[in-house]
Amino acid sequence: MAETKREIERKYEATGKTALPDLVGTGSVAAVRDEGVMELDAVYYDTRDLRLAADGLTLRRRTGGADAGWHLKLPVAAGIRDEIRAPLSETLPAFLAGLLRSRVRHAAVVPVVRLRSSRDVRHLLDDDGRPLAELSVDTVRAERLTGTGQAAWTEIEVELADDGDETLLDAVEKRLKKAGIRPSAAPSKLARALEETGTAPPAHEDGPATPGTAGHAVLAYVREQADAIVALDPAVRRDLPDAVHQMRVACRRMRSAFKTYRKVLDRGVTDPVGEELKWLAGELGAARDEEVLTARLDARLDALPNTLLLGPVRARLRARGARRAEDARHTALAALDSARHLALLGTLDALLADPPLRKAAAQDASEVLARAVRKDFDRLARRVEHALALDPGQERDLALHAARKAAKRTRYGADAARPTLGKPAKRFAKRVKAVQSLLGEHQDSVVARTALREIAIQAHAAGETAFTWGLLYGREEAAALEGERELPAVWKRAAAPGIRAALSR
Question: pTM of the full predicted structure?
Answer without folding.
Answer: 0.89
